[in-house]
Amino acid sequence: MKRWLGKAETTLGNHSDRLNAINIFPVADGDTGTNLYLTVRAAAQALHCLDTSALPVISADPAIHSFGPPDPAQNDVGAVLSRAGLAAMEQARGNSGTLFAVFLCAAAEPLAGHHRLSAPLFAAALNRAQLRAWSALSDPVPGTMLSVMEAAARAAATVDAEHNGDDSNHALGLALDAAVEAALAAVVRTEGQLEALHAAHVVDAGGVGMLLILDCLRSAVLGEELQDQLLDGLHGYDVQDPHIHAGMPRDEGVEVMCTITLSPLDAATMRQRLDEIGESVIMSQAGATADANGAYRWRVHVHVPEAALAMALIRALGEPSDISVSELALPEAELEAESHDAGPREPAGQAADGYER
Questions:
Q1: What global pTM score does this model have?
Q2: Which end of the chain is more exposed for a tag (fewer CB within 10 A), N or C?
């Protein structure tokens, strides 16, 4: 899990500019790549302090175990992933980042108590994650990263069913391959599923980001390289293609995000009221356990014309924390700079840690 999220952090950092370039849905704000990168980085950093070199090696063959018995505190796949998911949820950015955080937290649940990933567990995790992501949005639509999650989950479930719950490494490899292949096909289909993408002749940015994340999981688990040709031919994704969103009408309004503790009833009330005043409402539990009063922590995301109205509504039901308010439209200076950028961008320099900035 640590290797997967570290690889995803680096990969999304390298691809963030192109993901931003084709980001036009639900709003053309050109930040999907940045938001996914920052959210995945938060998840990866939550695991940096884990000393994986001291963890036992777990294999399907008991003879391959090393370093003694598993440490239940650090070698529980679900617990480790839950730790990363909660960090991602608390620091999620934008629609795409919030949905990925939801995906991560939900995927951890079927893996709790297990020390090794298998095809049946992988299929169960993907299914739980895609269902939770769809339900987090008040108005989910096909043709987004939700469709990519769903396609990957269905493919993994098919492999698992065909192999009768085989928990071998071979079956896991087949499930991972099928999930990435199905995710790619789902990304290609997004262009025809949403009118905005069809008109701009591009695929969905969040969907591409999710595809990259799944390929990083495949690479980390199987010990293979990322598939360099995976994105070849995706419309709008060539490095010389323009930043599509720069030519789109400016989206007025702001994106408001916060964390708040609410009872299930108050959470339902907040979702209804936010739906009445805004769009892109996402609400998901930032933790699986309730407090002494039966309330849960929730991560809230909404696009509204003005922040004051949303914040007044939110504060009427509880006291928010980790509040973030950002303009949906890029500043005019950035739009002008992008619209006059005629050639491919220079690759970012590498920092001392090897990650591209």
A1: 0.80
A2: C
